[in-house]
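Quick review question:
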C-alpha cells in the first residue's frame, strides 16, 4: 500500500510546480538569448538583399504589426494603458534603437560595430539605480569592469574603419534599448500592467515615425528570395515581436540589471554562430573577451 496520502501527493505536486515555475524564467531567457544571437547572422545575410533603411522599415513593420495583431486577435482590453509610458518605450526601444543601428550600418560599420549595442547592460545598471533604485553592489562593479573589458576585446573598436560615428550610433542604440527596458520595468512596478496591451501599443507607436524614412528606402532594389523572406520573418516576428514579449515578461520577474548583464552572453553566442554559419572565426583576443564576459556573468549572479 502506498504511503502517500492525498494531502502528501498534493504537497508534492505543488512543490514540483513551484520548482518548475522558478526555473521557467531562466529557461525562457536561455531561448531568448539564443534567438537574438542568431538574429545577427540572419540580419547579416538579409542585409545583402536590401538597403539598411529598407531593411529597418520592413523589419519594424512586421514586428509591430505582429504584436498589435495579437492584441487585436485577443478581442478585449484594447484601450491603451499608460499611454505616456507606451510612447516613451515604443520610441526608445523600437524606433530610436532600430534607427541608431541602421545609421551605424549606413556609416559603413556593418560588421562588429552592431555588437556595441550590448553596452546596453551597463546603461541598464546605471539607469536602474537612478530610476528603479536597484542596488549596485561591489560584485556589480566588478562584473561591469570584466564585462566591458571582454566586450571591447570581442568588438575591437580600435580596429574599425570609418571613424567614431558608427561606434557612437551603435552605443546610442544600446542606450535607447536600456532606457526602454528600464521604463518598462518601472511601468510594471507602478501597478497591474497587461503585458500584451503594453507591448502591442508601444509597437504601434514605433510605426508612426517610419513614413519619415520612406524617401531613403529602396523597395524596388530588393533582391527577393525565399531566404530573404524567411529571414525577415525571423527578424520581424520572432526576434522583434516574440522576443520583445519574452523580454517584457522577464523584466517583470527578474531584476533589470541582472537580466541585462546576463544578456552579455548574446555577443558571445553571436560570435560562435557567425563562425559556424559564416566562417567568421574568432581571434585569440575575442576568445579572451568571452572568458571575461563569462566572469562578469558569474559575478553578477552572485550579487
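Suggested answer, residue by residue:
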Amino acid at each position: 500500500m502506498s504511503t502517500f496520502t492525498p494531502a502528501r501527493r498534493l504537497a508534492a505536486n505543488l512543490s514540483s510546480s513551484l520548482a518548475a515555475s522558478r526555473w521557467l524564467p531562466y529557461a525562457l531567457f536561455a531561448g531568448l538569448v539564443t534567438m537574438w544571437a542568431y538574429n545577427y547572422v540572419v540580419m547579416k545575410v538579409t542585409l545583402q538583399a536590401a538597403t539598411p533603411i529598407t531593411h529597418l522599415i520592413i523589419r519594424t513593420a512586421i514586428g509591430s504589426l505582429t504584436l498589435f495583431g495579437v492584441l487585436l486577435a485577443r478581442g478585449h482590453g484594447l484601450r491603451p494603458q499608460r499611454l505616456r509610458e507606451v510612447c516613451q518605450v515604443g520610441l526608445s526601444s523600437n524606433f530610436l534603437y532600430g534607427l541608431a543601428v541602421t545609421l551605424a550600418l549606413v556609416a559603413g560599420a556593418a560588421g562588429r560595430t552592431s555588437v556595441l549595442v550590448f553596452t546596453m547592460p551597463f546603461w541598464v545598471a546605471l539607469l536602474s539605480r537612478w530610476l528603479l533604485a536597484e542596488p549596485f553592489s561591489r560584485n556589480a562593479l566588478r562584473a561591469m569592469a570584466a564585462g566591458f573589458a571582454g566586450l571591447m576585446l570581442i568588438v575591437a573598436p580600435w580596429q574599425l574603419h570609418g571613424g567614431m560615428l558608427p561606434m557612437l550610433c551603435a552605443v546610442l542604440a544600446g542606450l535607447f534599448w536600456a532606457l526602454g527596458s528600464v521604463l518598462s520595468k518601472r511601468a510594471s512596478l507602478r501597478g497591474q500592467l497587461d503585458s500584451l496591451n503594453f507591448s502591442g501599443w508601444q509597437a504601434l507607436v514605433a510605426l508612426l515615425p517610419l513614413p519619415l524614412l520612406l524617401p531613403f528606402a529602396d523597395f524596388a532594389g530588393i533582391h527577393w528570395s525565399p531566404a530573404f523572406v524567411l529571414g525577415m520573418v525571423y527578424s520581424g516576428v520572432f526576434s522583434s515581436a516574440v522576443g520583445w514579449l519574452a523580454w517584457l515578461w522577464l523584466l517583470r520577474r527578474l531584476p533589470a540589471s541582472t537580466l541585462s548583464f546576463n544578456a552579455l552572453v548574446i555577443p558571445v553566442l553571436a560570435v560562435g554562430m557567425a563562425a559556424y554559419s559564416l566562417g567568421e572565426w574568432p581571434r585569440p583576443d575575442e576568445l579572451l573577451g568571452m572568458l571575461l564576459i563569462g566572469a562578469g556573468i558569474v559575478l553578477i549572479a552572485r550579487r
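Why it works: The radius of gyration is 20 Å. Confidence is low (pLDDT under 50) at residues 10-20.
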